[in-house]
Amino acid sequence: MSMILGYLLMFYLINRSVFLLLFNCFFVFLAPANTDKSPVMCIDHYPPLQVILNNGEATGENVEVGKALVKKLDMDLKFTPDTPFSRCLLWLDQGKVDIMVGVLGSAQRHKNFHMLLYDEMTSKVFFIRAGSPELNTYDDLKGLKIGVSRGTKQFEKFNDGILNGHFTKVEVGDLSAAFGMLAKGRLDAVVCTDYYGIKIINENTYYGLNIQQTHYKVTSGTKTYIAISKQSELTKHIKKLREVAKKMFETRQFNEIIQTFKNEWPEFY
To answer: Same domain for 81 and 210?
Structure first.
């Protein structure tokens, strides 16, 4: 009798296991797959290039350029939260994000990423404490401690000045923090894109009273790129992306996108 009960119990357990296995497989089959293949663009809040609005949506010159490009593949972009530029570059290299816009060229970046040209004119300006000696020429930078946002590329002569000791570069994680250091006398100057520096000053009364833009400004033919991670699914479409980006650059579509943003969002300038 005990042997019969043992067989019955074994039969029940085996069939129960098979039933549970089939039950789980059935619901795994029915579960909706993650079909969201939208590429992710890494951004920080850097108006007017990248703007994270109060409702969490992303816009800005770079953002609209990125949206327009991937739209040619019938895709929509997703965006990271406010992420430091240097971390964005790391994530792009690791394949954790798919795309960045507004990346200056270098030999290493051309090696690490697919680089698509979209602009070739960059303006850099310097800011100093009010009452400090004016900066009129490159020679006036001699001996200064100059703050820059970590991971950003500067114009060629600036890079030469770092190498030959003409001045000292101080990297900071956030450009607003650099302006704070400047106001407190921990830096002699800060270099950045003109409109972003002016925006920081205009939004902070203390900075506005104690920091001023210098006469020295460098506008150069520095090429700016859309960078695609070589580990991204977008690499499957890289030939088409290159063709599309080249056409958009040559027909000035990228410029038109940027101008449209400027017209729609004048408060960021």
So the answer is: no
Structural domain total, the chain: 2
- Show the tokens assigned to 179: 């302006």
Domain extent, residue 48, equals: 40-120+223-268
Closest alpha carbon to 76 in 39, 31, 29: 39
- The closest of 82, 108, 112, 79 to 95, measured between CA atoms, is 112
The answer as to whether 27 is a domain residue is no
Q: Identify the pLDDT of residue 152.
A: 79
**Measured between alpha carbons, how far is 128 from 138 in angstroms, rounded to an integer?**
14
Instruction: Identify the residue with better confidence: 92 or 15.
Output: 92
Beta strands in the chain (DSSP E): 40-41, 51-52, 58-59, 78-79, 99-104, 113-119, 122-129, 145-149, 168-172, 189-193, 211-220, 224-229
- DSSP state letter for 221: -
Residues 154 and 178 in one domain: yes
pTM of the model: 0.65
In a domain? residue 23: no
